[in-house]
Automatic annotation (TrEMBL), chain A:
The chain crosses the membrane at residues 15-40, 136-154, 189-210. Residues 19-207 form the ABC transmembrane type-1 domain. PANTHER family: L-CYSTINE TRANSPORT SYSTEM PERMEASE PROTEIN TCYL, MEMBRANE COMPONENT OF AMINO ACID ABC TRANSPORTER. CDD domains: TM_PBP2. PROSITE patterns: ABC_TM1. It holds the Pfam family BPD_transp_1. Its main location: membrane. It is a multi-pass membrane protein. It comes from Sinorhizobium kostiense. This is Polar amino acid transport system permease protein. It is found in: Cell inner membrane; Cell membrane. Keywords: Amino-acid transport, Cell membrane, Membrane, Transmembrane, Transmembrane helix, Transport. Belongs to the binding-protein-dependent transport system permease family. HisMQ subfamily.
From TrEMBL, chain B:
It is found in: Cell membrane. Residues 19-264 form the ABC transporter domain. It is a peripheral membrane protein. GO terms for molecular function: ATP binding. InterPro entries: AAA+_ATPase, ABC_ATPase_HisP-typ, ABC_transporter-like_ATP-bd, ABC_transporter-like_CS, Ectoine_EhuA, MetN_ABC_transporter-like, P-loop_NTPase. It comes from the Bacteria. Keywords: Amino-acid transport, ATP-binding, Cell membrane, Membrane, Nucleotide-binding, Transport. The keyword Transcription regulation does not apply. This is Polar amino acid transport system ATP-binding protein. Belongs to the ABC transporter superfamily.
Length: 221, 271
């Protein structure tokens, strides 16, 4: 079997279209994870113990069980409790929750690397806790978190094929469907590999650029 | 900390001190940092705390800034309790809301400056006035520029801390603290992290504050000459207690306690 360029040209539009779905799934999932992860990270630092313990256990649970199980859980178990979600929504929630747990650890690391003296200076000028986070701590913690956050952006993107198990028409599912219809798997799966590679490399480069930019902008050379 | 019925709800009388430590105790686990500390600082007074490391001197300042909780006694500022609040006629440990209000009359400068690295010198000095005091940005900018001029840093107002020397950063930090219009200023070893040649620019600023402003100040320093020049009173701490306190002339010339004598001669030998 050798490479068929004509077949490649035929299937390319459909695969590129599916790539958009994959990008959207990764982007939305990541947006959920980025926001929720910050909530998890800060919740674990409140003095209210029941909250910190609950969130810590939740994060531990999300990190210690497979993503694919969590996807199935949200999609198939949800309806038994009256929560029926489309594959897209269920997938976004599962992937967002799963990666929120990982990102919360990245944020936590970033927040913890802000020197203690910064918190003390905030107390000395009497900022509220919310102002301390928003104005002083997070602007310093986030640049420190960018590298770690970038790694998870690439992972979340590479994990989107798992959404195919509940029928989300992302890139991997489209390639499998094309392969099944034409009895040719070489071209579709190769294209999938190339697309993932290109996007991952591009993301990694953008993250490095963004990190340098944010450090410059915040005066942290 | 239990409710304390034997402590007054507020200090009254003709001479209310600006700061009063009343039977204050601080421990870390079994280790007693400060034991039964009693210390009054009068309005406008400049008190310097000296002593060997581990004697609890920095802890005194940190407790007053509410960076450390205390394990016994009460601290009063301007006649009102700082570490405690009145409730049903007795003092109970202050909650976060009360603490926030109570500490607004205190400002502090740190050994390592602790400027906000993502803000310029000017922004550092505007942050508190805008966020906490509710000043407009224009008012806060005027106030910050006035203070930066006073500490000789107006030309560098748009620089980030990373671009400033230690002495320059410390002067900005002093301006930042003053922008909150505190009644009491705390200086915690503000020259210890500085290169010798820039110590003078910071001590000059503090000297200026002493002569031109009616601030109450409490300072921890290792600069004995500086302490002697500007203090109204020196407290020598040893083992979590005030071993001896007196005017600088008296304490440096005629230390009464043996430990004070040993400490001062050791410091002199090091100079």
């Amino acid at each position: 079997m050798h490479w068929d360029w004509q077949f490649t040209a035929e299937i390319l539009p459909r695969l590129l279209w599916a790539t958009l779905n994959t990008l959207m799934a990764a982007g939305l999932g990541y947006a959920i994870a980025a926001v929720l992860g910050l909530v998890f990270a800060i919740a674990q630092r409140t003095p209210f113990r029941p909250l910190t313990v609950t969130v810590r256990e939740l994060v531990e649970f999300l990190r210690s069980t497979p993503l694919v199980l969590q996807i199935f859980f949200v999609y198939y178990v949800g309806p038994e409790y009256g929560v029926s979600l489309s594959p897209w929504v269920a997938g976004m929630i599962a992937i967002g929750l799963h990666y929120a747990a990982y990102l919360s650890e990245v944020y936590r690391g970033g927040i913890e690397s802000v020197p203690k003296g910064q918190w003390e200076a905030c107390t000395a000028i009497n900022l509220t806790t919310a102002q301390t986070y928003r104005r002083i701590i997070l602007p310093q913690a986030l640049p420190l978190s960018v590298a770690g956050m970038g790694n998870y952006l690439i992972s979340i993107f590479k994990d989107t094929p798992m959404l195919s198990v509940i029928g989300v028409a992302e890139l991997m599912q489209a390639a499998t469907a094309i392969g099944g219809q034409n009895y040719r798997y070489l071209e579709p799966y190769t294209i999938v590999g190339v697309v993932f590679l290109v996007i991952s490399l591009f993301s990694a480069a953008s993250i490095r650029g963004f990190e340098a930019w944010i450090r410059r902008k915040l005066g942290m050379y | 900390m239990e409710a304390l019925s034997s402590f007054p709800l507020e200090l009254t009388g003709p001479e209310v001190p600006m700061v009063r430590f009343m039977n204050v105790r601080k421990t870390y686990g079994d280790f007693v940092v400060l034991d039964n500390l009693n210390l009054d600082i009068a309005p406008g007074e400049m008190v310097t705390v000296i002593g060997p490391s581990g004697s609890g001197k920095t802890t005194v300042l940190r407790m007053l800034m509410t960076l450390e909780t205390i394990n016994g006694g009460v601290i009063y500022v301007d006649g009102k309790p700082l570490t405690h609040m009145p409730k049903n006629g007795v003092l109970v440990p202050a909650d976060a809301k009360y603490l926030r209000k109570a500490r607004s009359s205190i400002g502090m400068c740190f050994q390592h400056f602790n400027l906000f690295p993502h803000m310029t010198a000017l922004e550092n000095c505007m942050e508190g006035p805008v966020q906490v005091l509710g000043l407009s940005r224009r008012e806060a900018k005027e106030r910050a520029e006035e203070l930066l001029s006073m500490v000789g840093m107006i030309e560098k107002k748009d620089q980030h801390p990373a671009r400033l020397s230690g002495g320059q950063q410390q002067r900005v930090a002093i301006a930042r603290a003053l922008a909150m219009r505190p009644k009491v200023m705390l200086f915690d070893e503000v020259t210890s992290a500085l290169d010798p040649e820039v110590i003078g620019e910071v001590t000059n600023v503090i000297q200026d504050l002493v002569t031109k402003h009616n601030l109450t100040m409490l300072m921890v320093t290792h600069q004995m000459g500086f302490a002697r020049d500007i203090s109204d009173r020196i407290c020598f701490f040893y083992g979590g207690k005030i071993e001896e306190q007196d005017t600088p002339e008296e304490l440096f010339a005629n230390p009464k306690s043996k430990r004070t004598q040993q400490f001062l001669s050791a410091v002199k030998a090091a100079d």
